[in-house]
Amino acid sequence: MSHSTLATRTWILLLSTFIALNGVAQGLSATLSAVDHNGYHITCFGAKDGQVTVTATGGTPPYNYSWSTGSTSSTVGDLAAGYLKVSVTDANANEVIKDITLTQPDEMKVELTAFKYPNDLNISCYECFNGSIDLEVFGGVAPYDFAWDDGPTVPDRSGLGALNYKVVITDANGCVTDAKEKLEQPEKATWGMDGNADTDPQQHYIGTSDAQDVVFKSNDTELLRLKGNGTIGLLGTATEEGPLFRREDGSLGLGDFPDAPTDRCFQLAGFRKFWLTTGNDFTYMCQDQIPKLGTLNAEPVRVITNGQTRIHISSTGKVGIGSEPGGAIEGYRLYVEDGIVTRDVLVKLGAWPDYVFEPEYELMPLDKLRSFLGVHHHLPGIPAANELEEQQGLALGDMLPRVMKVVEEQALYILQLEERLRTVELQLEANGLTKP
Predict the structure, then answer these.
(1) Residue 160 contacts residue 133 (beta carbons within 8 Å)
(2) C-alpha to C-alpha distance for 233 and 223, rounded to whole angstroms
(3) CB 135 within 8 A of CB 167
(4) Does pTM surpass 0.90?
(5) Is the Cβ–Cβ distance between 55 and 88 less than 8 Å?
(6) Exposure of 267 by Cβ count < 10 A (0-12 exposed, 13-18 middle, 19+ buried)?
(7) Burial of 303 by CB count in 10 Å (0-12 exposed, 13-18 middle, 19+ buried)?
(8) Continuous H helices in 69-194
(9) Percentage helix, strand, coil, to 5, in the chain?
(10) Rounded to the nearest 5°, which phi and psi values hold at 412?
(11) What strands, in cross-sheet order, belong to the sheet with 109-114?
């Protein structure tokens, strides 16, 4: 092969490679076109709304498309920013490759700067309107639209009060972000005649910060004095002694409480809320205000002497003397720890067993009574020892009628035996078997 022929073939190979790398292979070519959003392929930072179309010409149709995303159509969408490549082949397997890098705007950020006065606050005085906010936007696509929550559409604000402010910013591509700023003002330094809200008792008060007294006057007359040493003075220079009391017109009096009128009663809630150790006189107490001693919640009442609880009244009304009533048998109200000494005890009973003496009453035959005693080892109707142990004692109101019933039945048994004995004696006497 001549040198010229080799050179020619080399030139043809280089030309073919050049044509393939520049989108031309055997007459096949392709172009890429991406949707433009004000100079960017993606509308907003981080969005996935890019779209690219490849257009093939030359070669031999039909064309096949193979995108780096896996798509095989001529147009791909929902694309994020970044590198994208497509391979186009025609019916003769000629191939051309195209690529593109999709761009997006920088992330849109907002910076709000609130002016501060020498007091290190955004407002110079309480309830003044001299605050301002400067706004600066970074990223996104200019121009921007501004929408403050209180109406204005400008970026920078002035003449503002102590409130919370929010602004929504929209760029040329419709991308949205927002920012907030709170302006603070000094605390209220005076007390208003129409009342005061949001006060801090640790810092706000009516009074003095030194040893001087605080004086309250009405009609230029001193009525109340809070003294620097913590005591309270009443009615200025008045020297009369005695308790305060309320007159019918609502005013306060000082001195001895006036005699209560006989046609007027006193409510306990407004007259006297405590019990005196010297005794209490409720002569003029209203009838619907009966004095009470106890609790209004679930707490028990304890009567204590020498530091120990002597009487305990539970929230359910059970009374314990010498012990809490928790140890009492269920169903009983009073529990006495060490017993009771008394001259007499009245036990409320139900029906008394006098019905035993009625003619129709059927007395248990003696043979059955004997059998019952042999099996149960206690009289009918009388609880066994183990039953009394389970009940933790003996209920007198229940036991007395039972015992009386047994006693009356014993009387009937005795009378029956006496009658039988008399019959036997008469028979013996009739047969001459008894001594004259």
Answers:
(1) yes
(2) 8
(3) yes
(4) no
(5) no
(6) exposed
(7) exposed
(8) none
(9) 20, 25, 55
(10) -65, -40
(11) 109-114, 131-138, 157-160
More confident residue, 192 or 303: 303
- The single-letter DSSP state of residue 382 is S
Q: Residue 110 carries which side chain, given as an amino acid letter?
A: V
**C-beta of residue 185 within 8 angstroms of C-beta of residue 126:** yes
DSSP structural state of residue 195: -
pLDDT, tens digit, for every residue of 293-346?
888 888 888 899 998 888 888 888 888 888 787 655 667 787 788 778 888 777
Tokens of 272: 């006297």
CA gap 32, 85 in Å, rounded: 10
Residue 144 pLDDT > 70, yes or no? yes
Greatest Cα-to-Cα distance within the chain, rounded to the nearest angstrom: 187
Of 115, 67, 107, nearest to 89 by C-alpha is 67
Tokens representing residue 259 in the block: 């005699």
In whole angstroms, give the CA distance from residue 17 to residue 10. Answer: 11
Whether 96 and 20 have beta carbons less than 8 Å apart is answered as yes
Rounded mean pLDDT of 32-39? 96
Please name the residues in contact with 206: beta carbons below 8 A apart, sequence gap of 6 or more.
Answer: 191, 214
Strand 319-321 versus strand 308-313 pairing type? antiparallel
Spatial separation of the C-alpha atoms in residues 275 and 58, rounded to whole Å:
114
Residue with tokens 């008045």: 238
Contacts of 229 (CB under 8 A, 6+ apart): none
Residue with tokens 């309480």: 126
Predicted pLDDT of residue 172:
97
Long-range contacts, stretch 419-422, CB < 8 angstroms, 24+ apart: none
Alpha-carbon distance values, 104 to 34, 170, 176, 247 (Å): 12, 16, 15, 84
Contact present, 313 and 294 (Cβ < 8 Å): yes
Any idea how long the chain is?
436
Task: Give the C-alpha separation, 273 to 285, whole Å.
Answer: 12
Q: Is 199 helix (H, G, I), strand (E, B) or coil?
A: coil
